[in-house]
Amino acid sequence: MQATIHASALKSFTKALTCLARYGDELTICAYPDSLSLSATNSAKSAFCRFKYEKEFFSRYNIGKPRRNISDGEGEGLEETQTIKGQLLAKNLLSILKHRTVERSVERCELSIVEGTGGDEGSDEEIDSLESKLIVKLLCKHGVVKTHRLLLSIPIALLAPGVPDTPNQARVNIGPGALRNMLEHFPMQKGAKADPQLIWTFNESEVGLKTCESSMDKGKSQISTELNISAEEFDAYELYTSPIIIAFHLREFNATIAYAESMTLSLDMCFTDTIAPLYIDVEGDCTQGLFVIATSQPPGVPVPISQNSYRPMSNKKRDREETPTDLQRPKRGMKIVQRVDADAASRYTAQSRQSSRMPDSMPPPLSPGPGSFRPLSVPVHQPSLSPVPNKRREQQEPLFLPSSQLSIAENNFLKEAGLGDIGTAEELNALLEEDGEEVDFSPSQAQRASDSKQIKDDEMKVDGAPESFELVEETGFGPTQATQKGFQPLFND
Amino acid sequence: MSEEQPPILTASMHDLRHFATILRGINFNNVRATVTILHRGLLVKVEEARTITATAFIFSDIFDEYIYHSENQQNDNLMESSQGELLDNTMFEVSLNTLIDCLNIFGTGGPTSSGTGGSGGNKRWRKQGEGSDNESGEENEARGRGRRIEPISTTGSEKHTGMHMTYAGGGYPLTLLIAEDASGPTTTCEISTYEPEPQLDLDFDNDRMILKIILKSSWFRDALSELDPSCDKLTFVSNPPEMTNNPRNGKQRKGSATKPILRIKAGGNFGTTEMDYPNDRDVLESFECTRSISFSYRFTHIAKTLRALQSSTKTSLRIDDEGLLSLQFMMPSPKARGPEGEGAQAFIDFHCLPLDEDVV
Q1: ipTM of the assembly?
Q2: CA nearest A88 in B: which residue?
Q3: Where is this region: Disordered (chain B) (predicted)?
Q4: pLDDT tens by residue, B61-90
Q5: Which CATH number fits domain A2-155: 3.30.420.40, 1.20.120.430, 3.40.50.2300, 3.70.10.10?
Q6: Do B277 and A151 count as a contact with CB atoms less than 8 A apart?
Q7: Which residue in A311, A444, B268, B346 is a FRET match for A14, CA 20 to 30 A apart?
Q8: Model-level pTM?
Q9: Which residue ranges form the domains of chain B, and what is each CATH number?
Q10: Which residues of B touch A91 (CB under 8 A)?
Q11: A230-234, A423-427, B86-90, B239-243: least confident range
């Protein structure tokens, strides 16, 4: 991959990198034939940031190996269409491009990715070429050339969240300055640990912002601030229903605002539900920025019905763990980015490419490959209360386990439950169906339960399982994210 | 203080910032500096890891008053020093950190703005504002005139922190009398001195010189500051200019040379960085190279020169046939400006031994 960025465009590229670095440490670079995408995910996997640069953004962009040797051009021809991916520490790249001398002296910047080739290229560069490298060549005034070679690691394949395309999606548009004015009323604690959270209430004609106080912050912040602002402040304000209450952390949101402000672009915020993530689009010339920030359950806000099914179970577990955490504590949101198995990475690529091409539309859900992924756990009695989270699950395609095989954790779970001779999910499902209960006992649910707890108490399980099944019957089986949310604090730092 | 005989050294200056800047440039971590008093001025030298030495030449003309009474005959402790080339000198050791701290006791010994601009300058503004309000007004004006290469203006009646330094002789402390301004508070510091210990001498022999480059310090400073601090090794690669047209199969990019005349290479965990400099008068003021060389140095050692580099205007980089690196920085002096101020430049010299490539 070779891309040349002119000095004028380099500035916006660097701004995007600055934003990416505030989202996460690891920067994933994906080069597609017609675009270059840079993405980062925060460590809790609750915020995702992606910039996509069209080919036109660069003064020169091509993918595939430069055809130096025409003789073996055939072999290279196959690789022309491939995408190139790599991952590196964002701050390494940023420190190069953000250096104060760059702005002053660099005339253009050539980015290229050299893939490790096992040595056949090594001869002409005198450099060990086993590793993939991102080469940043800064051509400065007076013919000074600075070449930085950054090692690229194989990216941990992550499923990028897709943007839902639902009719009941709320969409508001606001400039960064107005947002900044709103947020500056909320005292922010400085420091890496501080990550304030705000509750946003979108009403018919006004928007309310409120400090979100959690048990962890208690005592630290004595001020609870509430701010109401007319919907007219927004450039676009479309709600399908009101009120919509969402709460999310500001650290990444602030990074997005800072980027939008520096680029003088407006933010297009889309959200659907209290528990669904917030999507922000920031579009510029040949640039698309997509930001996804997980929302969390604000305290004191009526819990959506789809969440109820999980509460009893998680409550019980927490008691058993003797973790006296406040149940009302807003959780650092659910994971919006899922890890993918290595073999799923290629499919992820395809999906991600599609979604990056059309960030406003939901990528078509992929049907899971035969036997490689477990079927989606759409409940049998799924009331139409929370269709969105399920949709999200579909497109995200969170891939936990092959459907035909149970994990170790699940097997343990079953053994402890006295069902040790059940080997596959089908058997399990069959067994459960015989019981006459129409439930979707999905492997992932079991896995998650046992993962988080390693339940040892048979009693509890016998009790617990039917209980949750009952609830499932009553209220519908909600999104798995909610389960994770319930469990989240146990994993969080 | 001995009353019956004059002190060996009496030196004073009305503005100690330049002096402090030079000393700060050679301030390695917590090492003692050997101060050699000569008739021409002071020579302050530090050494680390038996690999790198830094020497500051502070000529007597940057002091308003500089009186050296040679006491060698009366001082048995310093007899050995007379064996040196510079017969008439006096040496002592002093903790450089302490000396610099004392000079900065009013917070006014901050770095003089020099060829750098950048963040160091901002710090100084703040410090000066604390020290004296009159001053900052004038300095800000000076800043507005584009002080990027200008040293501080020394016009007229500015009030600077003045200093009077005396050294009575072996066994006596170095006594500093520092006055914030004529009517302001004064302080007297007595800094313990030590007998000098033998020094590492890394003499650069001009006959063995292979590479000699003079460049603006800003180029070299930018190069070093752009390198990741995690680098462990820094390599200077240089080729004689005539060899750069040597045709080589392989890359031929825009007709540029296959062999860079000057390449600074650094490697770390993150990858490698190379910086190529062309033989352009705007970049390299002079370039002499007799044969291709490539020598590596520990980056942490080279990075120690940064502070001196930041306040210097020009850098001379020399490497001899065994890889001994000599970096000489020309420190701008307030008095050095104008036609008559030629000799008043101060210099800081760094000599650094290369890494042994066979071992590394």
Answers
A1: 0.72
A2: B270
A3: 111-163, 238-257
A4: 888 899 998 865 544 444 444 444 456 788
A5: 3.70.10.10
A6: no
A7: B268
A8: 0.66
A9: 9-194 (3.70.10.10), 208-352 (3.70.10.10)
A10: none
A11: A423-427
